[in-house]
Structures
1.
Amino acid sequence: MDVGVDNEQFVTSDEDIVELFSHEYTTVLFTLGNGMGCPVWFAELLNRVLCCNYVYFDGIRYARKESNVPELNQQIEGLKSFVFNQMLQRVKTINPVLEWNNQMSIRRIQNDTYRITSDSGELRSIKSGGEAVEEYTSVITGKLYVHYQKIMTSLFTSHNYSCKVILDKPANSGVTFMIPFNLTSAGVVTSEVNQITVVLGGYSNEVQFSQKGSSYDIDLLSGGILEFLKGTDDRTYYEVTWDGEFVDTLPVASDEVSDPSSN
C-alpha cells in the first residue's frame, strides 16, 4: 500500500508556499495468481472488470490507477502460467445512496468462503484460493422468517423474535443454523449467536428469542446467508437467507402438518 498526493502550489515573492489545491490518495498493488500462477485469460477478465464503474475488492471500492493494466510476470520458464500485478486506487468520492445499494447487492457468504462452484460444475468450498477442503454434491436453499414484537413498560423494554426456517426441499440430515444478534444494554453492545434446527423434513419448529435492553437486533444484512452445522456424512450445502423483513405471521411449510390440538 502506498499513499500519494496530487497538488499544485504557488510560491510567493517571500518564498512562502500557498497550496492551491491538494488531493491525497491511496494506491495498492493487487496480485492475481499464486505460486503456480494462472492463465492469461484471468488477466483479460480482470482488465475487463476494471472497465466497470463500480468494482469492489472485499467490500472496498477501487479503480485502476490511470491507464495501468495487469503486468505479466512469468513464474516458471516454459510454463504458460503467470502472475499479474495491477495497480489500484481506492475510491473515496462516493454517492452514499449508490454505495448503500451496491453494498446491499453484493452477495454475502461466509467470510472464509470465496466460491462454492468449480469450473467443472462440481460443488465445493475453496478457502483463500487453496485446494478444496469440503466437497458438496447438492445445494438446498431456504428462507429464514422472523416475526418481531417490542413490548415497552415503565420498567423495561422487551424485544421478542419468533423465528422459523423453511427449506425448498427436505434436509438430508439434521442441520442447525446460526442466527447472530446484537444486544445493547446500558450502552454496552454484546454479540450472541442463537440456533435453530431443522431435524427432519423441510422446516424447523418456531423458536423464540427474547432479551431486555435498549435494543436487540439481528446482526444479518438483507440477503445474508446463515452459517450452519450438519452431519459429517451430509454433503449438502444449505443456503438459507433472510430478506431483512419482518412478517406478521410465520408461514406454514408445504409439508407441514397442522397440530390437531390447536383446532
2.
Amino acid sequence: MLKRSRPRSRAHSLRGRALLALLVMAGAVAIALTMPIRLGLDLRGGTQIVLETKSTETTEADREATDRTVEVLRGRIDALGVAEPTIVRSGENRVVVELPGVQDPKKAADVLGRTAQLTVHSVLGPGEPQGEAEGKAEGEAAAKDAETDDPETDDPKTDDAKAASGTDGERVLPDESGMPLRLKDATLTGQDVKGADARFDQQGGAGWHVTVDFKDAGSDRWAKVTGEAACHPAGDPQRRVAIVLDNKIISSPQVDPSVACGAGITGGSTQITGSFDDTEARDLALLIKGGALPVPVETIEQRTIGATLGDEAISAGAWAAVIGTALTGLFIIFVYRLMGVLATVALLCYGLIAYAGLAAIGATLTLPGLAGFVLAIGMAVDANVLVFERAREEQAARTRPSTRSSLTAGFRSAFSAIADSNITTLIAAALLFFLASGPVKGFGVTLGIGVLASMVSALVITRVLAEFAASRPSVFRRPHITGISTTGPVRDALLRRNPFLMRRPRRWLAASAVVLVVAGSGILVRGLDFGIEFTGGRLIEYSTATRVDADRARDALADAGFPRAVVQSSGDSDLSVRTEKLTNAEADTVTKAIGELGGETEKVRDELIGPSLGAELRKDALIALGLALAAQLTYLAVRFRLLFGTAAVGALAHDVVILVGVFAWLGKPIDGVFLAALLTVIGYSVNDSVVLFDRIRELLGGKDRKQSFAQLTNHAILQTLPRTVNTGMGAVLILASLAVLADDSLTDFALALLIGVGVGTYSSVFTASPLAIEMYDRGSGSRPTRRRGRSTEEKEKAEKKVPASRTERQEVP
C-alpha cells in the first residue's frame, strides 16, 4: 500500500503544480493583453520637472501646502494642453511633473515655476530711484542692526525686501517703462479673480490683451480703488492703478477721464494691456486664471528626452533581450540538453510573468528598468542551474536512481539556496526603490518583480515541465537526453583531480589584497568623476548633422561665456555638454553655439539637477551602500552564522572598492545608473557566497564533519564551482548583449555589471572562503597545518567521490 500511495501522491502534487502554473500563465496572458505597460519619459520622450516648495515668513511648505500647490499646477498643465500629463506629490515638499511629448521645457518650466501672486495696488506717487531706495533702506537697516545686533538682519533676502518696501505695507516697484512707483498695500489679490481670458482687439488696435473678471467682493474693491484714483487729475501718477504679478508691475494704466471720482469702474472686469504677443497673453491669462501658488517653488531637477532617443532605446533594449535570451537558452541547452530546453521555455514564461507583474502594479518602465528586465533573465537561469546541478549530484549518489526522483531531490535540496540568493537580491532592489531617484528607481522595481517572477518560473513552471518529461517512457528509456544523468565533465575533472585550493588561504587573501590596492589606488590617483546627479548641474546631449570636434565646441562655448563647460563627443555625430547650473535662456545660448558648428542640431537629452538635490543624492547613495552591506551581513548572520556573514560582507567590500577603482582608472562617471549597477553587483555577488556557504553548512552536518574546516570548504568549492561557472556564463551573455546593443547610457551600466560579475565570482571563492577559514581557525584557537601533499587516505576518499563513469546509468521504475 505504501508503494502505491507514493506514486499517487506524486501524481497529485504534479497535478496541483500544473494547475497552479496554468493559472499563473492564464493570469499573466490576461493582464498582458488588457493592461498595457506605462513607459517612462526616457523611453517615449518628454520632459520631467521636479519642483520643491519653499517656506515663506507666513506659510510653511508642509504636506498640506504642497497638496494645494499640486492642484494649482494641475490646472496650469491642463491649460497647456499636454496629453496624458502626470503630476504627483513626492515626499513632504516635492512635486513631480511629467509632460509626455514636450521637447522644449522652457515654456513649461516658466509657467509651472512662477508663483503667479496677482495683486492690485493704488499708486501713491512716483518713487525714489532704485539705487537711492536701496541705499536708504540699507542705511536704515544698518542703523537698526547696530542697535539690535541681530545676525538675522544680514540676510540678503531681508535686505532686498526692505529695499523694495516702505512703511505700512508700501512698496516701490518700476513700472513698464522703468519709472519707480510708490504703491499702497494691495487692495485686491488673486483670490478675488473669477477668470481671465486672452483676447485680440482688432477694431481698437490695442492688439493682444487679457480680460480679468472679478468675483462679487472683488468687483466692489475694484470699483473702490479705481474710484479713488479717478479723484486725481489726468497725468498725475496717483490716477494710475498698478497690477502686479510676482512683485513685477505688468500693467499700470491711468483711469479713464470718463470715470467719476468715487464712482469707479463697475461691472467687475478690467483689461490688462501691454505689448503682448499671442503666447504671452495666453500664458498670462493662464497664470491669473489658475491662481497663485500657496508657496514659492524651485526647480531642482529637469530632464528632457527626445522622442527618437526613446524609440531607439526601446528597439535596442528589445534586441538585447531577444539575443541575450537566445544565447542563454542555447548555452543551457548545450549543458543540460532536454532539461535545458524546458528551462528555456520557462524563461519565456518568466518574461511574460514579469511583464504582467509590472503592468498589474502600474509600474513605469524606464530605460534602467528595461535593463533590469533583461538582467533578471540571467538571474532566472541561476535557479534552474542550481536545481539541475543538485539533481546531477543526487543521480550520481544513488545506485539505481530515476531521473524524476533525482529532480525531486534536486528541487528540495536547492530550495534554501535559491530562496537565500533571491532574498539578497531583493534587498538590493528595495534599497534602490526607496533611496534612488528618477529612472533608477524604476530599475529597482523591475529588478524586484523580475526576481519574484524568476522564482515562480523556476520552482513552479520548470518543475512541472521537467517532472512531466522525466516521467515519459521515451525519456525513461533514454536517460542520456535529460542532461542530468551524468555529473558533467567539469565536475568529473575537478573531483578526479581533487585540488586542495584552500591549502594556503592566506595566499589567496594576499592576492585579493594586491588586486584591491591596485584598483583602489585609482580612487586616489585619478579621483572620481561624479555625474550631475551627485554634483548638480546641467547635461545636454546633441545630435548634429555634421561631426563636431570637441575642442572646437569647447572654444565656441568659452567665447559664448561658458569657459568651464565640459564637452565630450561620442559616436559619429553625438556631442554632450556638461556645465554648472544653467537657466533655460543660457541653455538656448549653448544650443545656438553648437548649432553654428554642427549645422542642423537636435537636442536628444537635457538633464538639470539642482545643487541641493545633488548633495541629497550623494548622501542617499552612501546610505544605500552602507545599508546594503549591513542588510546582507544581518541576513547572512541570521540564516547561517556570523562568521559566514562577516566573510561574505568582507568579500562584498572588496568587490565594491575594486569596481569603483576600475571606473576611476577608466574615467567613467559615477552616477545614478552606476549606483544601480553597484547595488546589483552586491546582490549578485552574495548569491555565489550564499550557495557556497549553504553547501559548507550542509557538509558540516554530514558524514565529513570530522575533516578540517579548510577541507570542508574546499569540497564545497569543488562541488559548487560548476554551478558558479554556468550561472556566470548566463549572466555574461545577457550583459554582453546589453553592452553591445543597448543605449549608450546603458553601456557603462553593462560594463560595471560585467566587471562586477567577474570580480564577484572570484571573490566568493577566493576571498570569502579564505576569510571564513582564517576567522574559523582563529575562533577555534587552532592553526591550520601545512601539508605538501595529500595522504593516501585523502586520495582514496577522492577516488571514491568520483563517479564510476560518465556513461548513462540504467534507470529502474
3.
Amino acid sequence: MSCKKNNDKVVFNDTYTGKFIEGPVNQLVSVNTEVKFSGDRYAATNGTGIFTVENSSKVKFSMDYVSSMDYVGNKVLHGDYSYMIKGDSLILDKIFPSTEHHNTLTSTISYKNQYRLKRMK
C-alpha cells in the first residue's frame, strides 16, 4: 500500500506520477512530475529531501538538494502542505503563510501550488 496508517500515523511509500499545478489561479501552469517516497526521504522531479507527516492532514517537506539550475521557490516540493489520500491518489496543496495585505493587489490574487499524483502500478 502506498499511503497507509501505521499506529494512526500516515506513512508515505512508493512512486507517484502526475501533475504539478502552479501559478495565479487565472494563469495556471501544469507540468508532469514524479515523486518517490521511501522512509522519511523523498525524491521529486527537481530535487530531494526529507519529509515529516505532522498530523492527519499536514506534511512538511524540507528539500536539501535542488537539481534545477532555474530554482524558483514556489516550484519545488518544500514547506508545509495539506494532503488528501483517495485510494491510490495523493493530492498535496501548499500552505502559504498568512500575510496581511490591506488594499493591495496581492490580497485579491489567489495562488495555487498543488501536486495531483497517482501511485504507479
4.
Amino acid sequence: MAPDPSQELVEPESWQLLEFLATRVRMVKKEAGFLTDLGDGLVMLDDDDVPNDWVGSATSIYVDRISGSSSSRAQSSSDVGVVVEFAVPRHSDERHPHRLVHRARKDLVRVLKVDERHFPLGITKFEVLESQLAEVTDDTGHTSVVAQITARAGLTETFQPLTTP
C-alpha cells in the first residue's frame, strides 16, 4: 500500500529535540539580556545549513549518541547525548575570540536551562552536564576557539507496530 500523501511527515523525537534547542539558541541576543548575539549568527543542525562561502563563527547542535534504556513493542526509551558547540575561527575578523567564547559558553548554558515541560512531546528530561573551552585545529590546519556544552536528554519514542500479512 502506498503512503498517504495527505499525512504530514513527523520528524523523529531526536530531531525534534535538536530543532527545539536551535530555537532556544536563536533567543540569545544582547537585547534579551544575554552577553552575545549568537542567535543572529549561523545555527546549524546539518551540513547543508552552512553556506559554501561561510568563514565566520557558528553554533552547531548535534546528537553524539543514543543509548537504549528500555523498550517494548510500541515504545522505546533512550538516553541521548547532545553537544552544543560554538566556534570562532582564529582567522576571522572577530576581535577578542577568547572572550567571545567565554561569553558564548555562559549564554549557552543559560539558554539551555529549560523547564522540561516546555520540551517537545517525547523528551522526558534534559540536563546540562559539562562545558569546556578549547582551541581546536581541523584537518586543513585552520584553528578555532570553541565553547562546547554537553547535555543529556531522556527520549521516549513511540512506534506504530507493523502487522504481518
